[in-house]
Design a protein that fits this description.
Layout (H helix, E strand, L loop, with lengths): L8 H27 L2 H11 E12 L2 E10 L6 E7 L17 H6 L2 E5 L11 H15 L6 E11 L1 H11 L20 E5 L5 H6 L5 H5 L7 H7 L13 E4 L10 H13 L3 E2 L1
Parallel strand pairs: 3-4, 3-5, 5-6, 6-7, 7-8
Antiparallel strand pairs: 1-2, 2-4
Helix pairs in contact: 4-5
Length: about 280
């Protein structure tokens, strides 16, 4: 289901075409990847990609935060790039644990940036969102270094990573969550792919669908509901956002399916191109 949009017709057509082409590319890549032998895949990956691992993009809470860049080595022109954030209710998970989820992007020939961020035991909310904002700005600032096309940045992740991807696509600079970041420009992602991400943080920290792990991200802060509102994608629904694709199972026992339903309804009402 795709909503209409209030911004320029050219922008509408570009966004819709980008979303359609992106979905088709992902669906095409999955069976091709399944049919590739492990030997062929190993040779393909070794020849096509250069891996720059553990690049420090920010130091916060005395923690050096890292990201890995998988850069196309066989081309000289700026490439479309996906920025991926792992899941774990903001208190668990690692970027290394998400490598298998990146393989379809390798098959399509995209650059990939795999991001770590501060977990709850290192810093409470909104630290994870702030970190990913800085990662996005770092990628934009270093686009030439890694042969990245900053006009074709797609952000994605699963569960908490889906929430973070939505945050990068929806939370504006005016919210003040990127103040620790180097550089002067927070780029607008070309699209968001949200895999069963949390859209209403209050719902999972102290609401009907409270999850203990999620609640740990807020700790005992007296203003946790205000922080939850600040980092909830549903707070920032409006026209003019990048296209958003949400994938969420209706039998999900961890992140309620209603999180996706509510986001889709709100985005459609606002005129933002989206599919669910």
């Amino acid at each position: 289901m795709t909503g209409s949009t209030k911004y320029r017709l050219a922008d509408k057509v570009t966004s819709s075409v980008f979303m359609r082409n992106l979905i088709l590319a992902i669906l095409t890549a999955l069976p091709a990847l399944a049919q590739t032998s492990s030997t062929d895949w190993a040779v393909h990956a070794a020849n096509q990609y250069r891996v720059i691992s553990d690049v420090t993009y920010l130091t916060a809470s005395n923690v050096e935060l890292k990201l890995d860049v998988y850069q196309r080595a066989d081309v000289a022109t700026p490439q479309p790039t996906v920025i991926h954030m792992h899941g774990g209710f903001w208190v668990a998970g690692t970027k290394e644990g998400s490598i298998m989820a990146l393989m379809p992007w390798f098959e399509m020939g995209w650059n990939v940036v795999n991001v770590e961020y501060r977990l709850g035991r290192q810093a409470l909310a909104p630290a994870a969102v702030e970190d990913c904002m800085c990662a996005l700005r770092f990628v934009n600032n270093q686009a030439k270094t890694y042969n990245i096309d900053p006009t074709r940045l797609v952000v994605t992740g699963e569960s908490a990573g889906g929430h973070l991807a939505l945050s990068l696509g929806m939370i504006p600079e005016s919210a003040g969550l990127d103040l620790e970041c180097a550089g002067t420009h927070l780029p607008r992602p070309a699209a968001v792919i949200n895999w069963y991400g949390i859209t209403d943080v209050a719902d999972v920290i102290d609401g009907p669908h409270r999850a203990n792990n999620a609640a740990q991200w807020m700790g005992g802060m007296p203003n946790k509901m205000e922080i939850a509102r600040r980092v909830s994608p549903l707070t920032y629904v409006r026209a003019g956002l990048p296209p958003i694709l949400t994938i969420h199972g209706d039998a999900d026992m961890t992140v309620p399916y209603q999180e996706a339903v509510r986001l889709h309804a709100a985005l459609t009402k606002a005129g933002t191109p989206n599919q669910c």
